[in-house]
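Contributing new records

If you add data, match the layout below exactly. Sequence lines come first and carry their own label; structure lines follow with theirs. Keep one chain per record. Anything else will be rejected by the validation script.
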Amino acid sequence: MIIAPTSFFADYGCHVRILVEALILQRLGYEVTICTYHNGEDIEDLSIIRSSSIPWRRGHEVGSSFHKLGFDLLLSLKSLTWVLRHKPDIIHAHLHEGALIGYPLGRLCRAPLVFDFQGSLTGEMIDHGFLHRDSLFHYPLRQLEGFINRLPQIIIVSSHHAARLLREEFDCRQKEIHVLPDGVNTDLFRPGSKEEKSALKERLGLPSQSRVVVYLGLLAEYQGTSLLLQAAGELAESYPDLHFLIMGHPNVDHYRALAGEMGISGRVTFTGRIHYLQAPRFLDLGDVAVGPKMSATEGSGKLANYMAMGLPTVAFDTPVSREYLGEYGVYATPGDYLCLAEAISALLNDEARAISLGRKLRERALELYSWPRLQETMKSIYSALTDEVRGDDMTL
């Protein structure tokens, strides 16, 4: 049983990680059921059960919100009902809320708990502006986070940086912590043909001879969206052929209005949500990709997608970005839009270097982040659990 306290599926990082892991577990022979919020897109060949809705809150939930308390309560009740009927062999919980829900359910049916840690709980709340470090609530929430981190038998993290965080800041030294990076389907995410690019550019209304900087992900302050627009404004005058293609949701109207206030509406196209299966076609329009995420603890699966597309990539210099891109990334000082603009400019001014870096990033994605590589890792992680939980049909 996979517990996903989010509006799965909605085409962004956390959801893609849940999807990829579920599909890989099915390949490994597990029966997988995902228990999630009432909203979200159903995925063919995946068993998904949904909690009841809250009448006054029917939209998707993204990030921290008081309304999530109600959603999590309903998800707990739905999960409990399913567990009592089906008695899963393993509970795989995403996010801290999922681990808190999954722990008593695991005790009830004697199933081990796997916690998929995707970043610090309090860190995410601070990133989303939901909590301040000097708040009275910060310390008790930090203590709660530490308590949750120590509940599962196995913790899966998306980066070595996250593993160090758990060991050094939350005293999880005795836990089994396994690094499973956010992966990418390198057969789906790969460079396409020039003809396809030209047709899509025309459809989107992009100038045919323009050079394009692409971004795909959530639109939010902690994702660096405002900083990306400021960098676009800085580059607009020097590069009259440059266009920014910003793909994702939510807050599209807010950032479109901000681009208008900055006088760069004609140089920026906002697509809104892009379906995961269509993402490679849109990313393929890019000459440069950007990952201006500000969070120091969360993963950054979009970087793996950029890499698989062979896109030279600029990112803020965080431990997670370094872990993904290695020596082939181009880095900017976190929070500095001028430095971000300079890093993009450096690639625009050296086409040969940009092409070389993109090619090396594609090779790195194939070696480290492809689905076959992740499948090997997940098989290794779950082997210890399957030794403990014997049976002809394993259910999850």
